[in-house]
């Protein structure tokens, strides 16, 4: 079906539910398109590549097991696959405010992120993960090979940095640095999929479990590494304290950065790499400074 506002509204109307769609807002993402109603309903339509039934079953299995609210699916479409749940209320993360704020507030945010991940990673037994058909890890070497085959498309000003990244990721996999016990990952854990109590507050809601898979704990911190090396390091330390499981920092950045490059290639937005790749060196330096503190 078409994923425009009129088509989605017609699909909801065909379900014969009492939903007021006047003034509904359309929001589009990688895994879904969402209608948000004025009275607080989220109507989430999966894109074709999403395992919708698995996500709904997973959300119902996780209900009440995690330390913050997650979508509670009230009903699903009978004719068209979509899930209806009440909006999770809260505030968006403000990175500028984070840079200005105290260590106490930074640590409070980091602690709430770490607590969610620690709970998420032990939320399902291996048997439950098998029952829900939670996917196994992807082959990281194939992603590296895919980028290497398209290096000629990377702008010259970013190519050296990308080549060095590919060498590092290959090395990490060869020497076993990325090997750790597998857990159930949220796998899309970034500030676009959560709300906070205030712009630099504690997590009060997390959504989008479309990408859940099994993997190494470090992988769930990869977007935090890209967002803020300082916050990433604080979350990693608290996660290690809570779980006793080491977070491999280089593995996290080694997961995130190839994804950035792959997305730029897929979307034919390779010029964005000229702004992104030079920032990796300063991010690594910031992580090194955080280690010394």
Structural summary, described in words:
The chain is α+β, with helices and mostly antiparallel strands and 293 residues long. The chain folds into 2 domains: 5-86, Phosphorylase Kinase, domain 1, CATH 3.30.200; 95-292, Aminoglycoside 3'-phosphotransferase, Chain: A, domain 2, CATH 3.90.1200.10. It contains 12 helices and 9 strands. The strands form 3 sheets. Strands 1-2-3-5-4 form a 5-stranded antiparallel β-sheet, covered by helices on one side. Strand 1 and strand 2 (32-36) form a beta hairpin. Helix 4 (103-120) packs across helix 9, helix 6 runs antiparallel to helix 7 and helix 6 crosses helix 10. The termini are far apart. 34% of the residues are buried. The model has no long low-confidence stretch (mean pLDDT 92).
Short characterization:
The chain is α+β, with helices and mostly antiparallel strands. It has helices at residues 5-13, 52-62, 95-100, 103-120, 126-131, 140-148, 156-174, 222-227, 229-243, 249-266, 273-276, 278-292; strands at residues 25-28, 32-36, 41-46, 75-76, 83-86, 183-185, 194-196, 203-206, 213-215.
Label this structure with key terms.
single chain, 293 residues, alpha+beta, Phosphorylase Kinase, domain 1, Aminoglycoside 3'-phosphotransferase, Chain: A, domain 2, five-stranded antiparallel sheet, 46% helix
* Helix-and-strand structural type: alpha+beta
User: How many strands appear in the DSSP assignment?
Assistant: 9
Give the CATH H-level superfamily of the largest domain: Aminoglycoside phosphotransferase (APH), C-terminal lobe
Amino- and carboxy-terminal Cα gap: 53 Å
Radius of gyration: 20 Å
The description of the largest β-sheet is: 5 strands, antiparallel
Instruction: Please report which band the strand proportion falls in: under 5%, 5-15%, 15-25%, 25-35%, 35-45% or over 45%.
Output: 5-15%
Low-pLDDT runs: none
CATH third-level topology of the largest domain? Aminoglycoside 3'-phosphotransferase, Chain: A, domain 2
H/E element sequence: HEEEHEEHHHHHEEEEHHHHH
Helix coverage percent of residues?
Answer: 40-55%
Mean pLDDT: 92
What is the molecular shape? globular
Number of helices: 12
Task: Give the tally of structural domains.
Answer: 2
Question: Which architecture of the largest domain would the CATH scheme give at its second level?
Answer: Alpha-Beta Complex
CATH C-level class of the largest domain is Alpha Beta
Strand order of the largest sheet: 1-2-3-5-4
């Amino acid at each position: 079906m078409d994923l425009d506002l009129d088509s989605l509204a017609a699909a909801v109307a065909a379900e014969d539910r009492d939903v007021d769609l006047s003034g509904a807002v359309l929001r589009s993402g990688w895994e879904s398109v969402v209608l948000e109603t004025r009275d607080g309903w989220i109507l989430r339509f999966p894109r074709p590549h999403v395992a919708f039934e698995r996500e709904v079953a997973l959300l119902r299995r996780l209900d009440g097991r995690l330390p913050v609210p997650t979508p509670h699916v009230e009903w699903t479409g009978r004719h068209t696959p979509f899930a209806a749940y009440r909006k999770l209320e809260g505030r968006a993360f403000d990175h500028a405010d984070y840079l200005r704020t105290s260590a106490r507030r930074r640590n409070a945010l980091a602690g709430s992120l770490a607590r969610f991940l620690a709970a998420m990673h032990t939320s399902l037994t291996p048997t439950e993960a098998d029952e829900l058909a939670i996917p196994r890890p992807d082959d990281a070497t194939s992603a590296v090979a895919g980028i290497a085959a398209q290096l000629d498309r990377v702008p010259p000003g970013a190519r050296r940095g990308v080549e060095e990244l590919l060498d590092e990721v290959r090395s990490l996999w060869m020497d076993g640095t990325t090997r750790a016990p597998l857990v159930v990952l949220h796998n899309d854990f970034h500030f676009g999929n959560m709300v906070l109590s205030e712009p630099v507050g504690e997590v009060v809601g997390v959504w989008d479990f479309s990408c859940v898979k099994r993997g190494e704990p470090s992988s769930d911190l990869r977007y935090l590494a890209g967002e803020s090396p300082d916050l990433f390091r604080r979350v990693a330390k608290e996660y290690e304290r809570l779980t006793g499981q080491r977070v491999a920092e280089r593995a996290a950045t080694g997961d995130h950065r190839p994804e950035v490059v792959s997305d730029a290639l897929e979307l034919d937005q390779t010029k964005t790499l000229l702004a992104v790749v030079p920032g990796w060196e300063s991010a690594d330096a910031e992580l090194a400074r955080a280690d010394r503190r």
